[in-house]
Amino acid sequence: MKGTVFYKMTGSGNDFVLLDGRSTSVEEWSRRRIIEVCDRRGGVGADGLVILSPEDGGVRMAFFNSDGSRAAMCGNAALCSTRLSVHLELGPAEGMRLLTDAGVVATRCLDEDERAEIRLPDILMPKPVTTITLEPGERSIWLGCVGVPHLIVLVDDVGAVDVGSRGRILRHHAATGLEGANANFVAPPAKAGEPWLIRTFERGVEGETLACGTGTVAAALAVAGPGVRLPLGFYSWGGELLTVRATVRGDVATDVWLGGQGKLVFRGVWGG
User: Fold this and answer.
1) CATH, range 123-260
2) For 163-178, what is each residue's pLDDT tens digit?
3) Could you confirm whether 74 is annotated as catalytic?
């Protein structure tokens, strides 16, 4: 069968089409072609497309949202890229360098099946936002950047949030800048010590996704403080566990690690 071999993967419900850059190139993937392959009715279906290529002793991860726009970083895509890079023999399981548009990310596979861990560059701690009016059930809002900008909204109940409506408003709010930001809604667990809950409206997808790795990191750093200590676990809306650990020194988080799922769902051939 003629076409391009692809790998469908999921990171806690955030799903991607991944390609081996040794048999294709970024230049071959126009915005229209990316939209077509990510379409859930006429294509493979995905929140984004990733092209993995060997480069400078590491693996270059080129990431595109489902609307065809290129994004600097995606945490769950990086976790999936780590697992697939080992499968494709692009890098070793015990540790590799992912070269992203947001910088170099150290990654490794974990002993547990289908899980990986990525170490992110130092991150400025999210800052409170006071120019956004809180809706009922919202407690506070922060703005931070983990590869891409994120709003973090602390709420009483993530299940009660109309993520499609409220998320779209916040994603375009003037406080987020010209390009906007992802909107992440987080709630503490019913019992202390258990994982938090998170839901995300993701720009580029322009809707809710079942998980967001960098958004989870931003959320963990936003809520960390007196009474809430890192590391923290978060259940994505897809039901999988994401973990965040870091060392906070003043306004900067260092040694930031995100752990989560990188599951290969199936392999196929795209003829488009």
Assistant:
1) 3.10.310.10
2) 999 999 999 999 999 9
3) yes
